[in-house]
Specification:
- The chain has eight helices and 15 strands.
- The chain has about 375 residues and is an alpha+beta fold.
- The strands form four sheets. It has a six-stranded antiparallel β-sheet. A five-stranded mixed β-sheet has the order 10-7-8-15-12, with no helix packed on it.
- Helix 1 links the parallel strand 1 and strand 2.
């Protein structure tokens, strides 16, 4: 039997990436290489979510790859229906307890998130569009999915919501990554992205989300992303919801929290994330086990989630993405990647100080900021 293709892993990539790949290929030895392109590929695999225990591995994963959808010239699934909104949007109080109601729904959502995160194999789950939700977290995933697909004609049998949660402590990062069909990428190196990515913040404080408009040029060309011309910053605010193009690269780096928030706001960061998938169901992402709902006493409550037709206005500032200037600082993400290893990070200039009245900001660069490039001469890591 022909052995599975084994990823060639650089010796100095983050341990989490190495372990993630090892779990995906448990019966194989991982070879080691210093090749810079493979380092970049490992960087793209570095995802901000905790993974569930793979149901497929090694040759089994390679044998059971479903037919791969065609990708259009914009890098989206070719059969994507019209009517979706891809622009960055920010909504306040999208998830909140109804006026006059007991303040219990938000607390229960947080409690359920912490329960699922602490399962032996936490990770991301899939709720098919034609499957009724069975618990509060699935109801929230469905509410997010329905809000972003309202008025869109799609095939429910091939669509759904990928959902998971992130809990980070002060000082912890969520590394730069592309939302994609992770297992399909490991097996085939083909990048298929969700149409829309979303974040719903369940707490105040913590590292802001930074979304840069760089994207891969082709599904098999993940190592040559576009330069950065626009960046979006979103600070966690309880009940706030943001959405953005699923092809773009998000991160959450804690140095931003220390520069833009007071010490009192540097607490745990809890968020609920949903990717909207139309006409593609990611490989090997399980539906949440129904037995766990009863075993862990997960709630099944109505979810007070809604987004208005008009999102909150987001202010825009213009910067030179390469030289910076007065009142700006260069940040390197992840913060612990040395500038000698640019393949594992990105840098960008951001304005200081950030206006405290705004909780989201768009930065447009008069000259593109570079992804996987050194920071401007004389700048230090942020």
């Amino acid at each position: 039997r022909k052995p599975a293709t084994v990823p060639c892993v650089p010796h100095n990539i983050p341990d989490a990436v190495h372990e993630w790949l090892r779990v995906g290929f448990p019966e194989q030895e991982l070879s080691v290489s210093n090749d810079s392109q493979l380092m970049a590929r490992a960087h793209l695999c570095r995802c901000g979510r905790r993974r569930h225990k793979p149901q497929l591995s090694g040759t089994a994963a390679l044998r059971q790859i479903p037919p791969i959808e065609d990708i259009d010239a914009e890098g989206r699934i070719a059969s994507t229906p019209k009517g979706l909104t891809y622009a960055f949007r920010s909504f306040h109080d999208a998830l909140c307890d109804p006026p006059g109601a007991a303040a219990g729904t938000m607390k229960r959502v947080i409690a359920d998130c912490l329960t699922v995160v602490n399962l032996p194999y936490p990770g991301n789950f899939f709720l098919p569009a034609d499957m009724p939700p069975r618990c509060t977290l699935e109801r929230l995933a469905r509410a997010v999915f329905d809000s972003h697909t309202a008025g869109v004609a799609y095939d429910a049998a091939r669509s759904g919501a990928e959902w998971w949660m992130q809990v980070t402590q002060p000082g912890e990062d969520i590394g730069p990554h592309f939302d994609k069909d992770e297992d399909l990428y490991v097996a085939s190196h083909k990048m298929i992205h969700p149409q829309v990515s979303t974040v719903t913040y369940l707490t105040d404080g913590g590292a802001p989300t930074l979304i840069v408009d760089t994207r891969t040029k082709a599904p098999f060309d993940a190592l040559r992303p576009d330069p950065i011309t626009t960046a979006h910053l979103s600070w966690p605010t309880r009940g706030k919801h943001i959405s953005f193009d699923g092809r773009y690269e998000p991160t959450a780096a804690h140095p931003l929290a220390y520069h833009f928030r007071s010490p009192a706001e540097r607490g745990p960061r809890i968020s609920f994330l949903v990717n909207v998938w139309l006409h593609h169901q990611p490989l090997d992402i399980p539906v949440f086990d129904e037995a766990l709902v009863a075993k862990h006493n997960l709630s099944d409550l109505p979810v007070p989630f809604a987004i208005p037709k008009t999102p909150r206005p987001v202010p825009t500032v213009w910067l030179d993405g390469r030289t910076g200037g007065v009142g700006v600082k260069t940040f390197v993400f992840p913060h612990d990647r040395p500038l000698s290893n640019p393949a594992l990070g990105l840098w960008s200039t951001l304005p200081l100080p950030f206006p405290p009245a705004h909780d989201s900001l768009t930065v447009r660069y008069t000259r593109p900021a570079d992804l996987h490039e050194h920071a401007p001469e004389g700048e230090n890591e942020g």
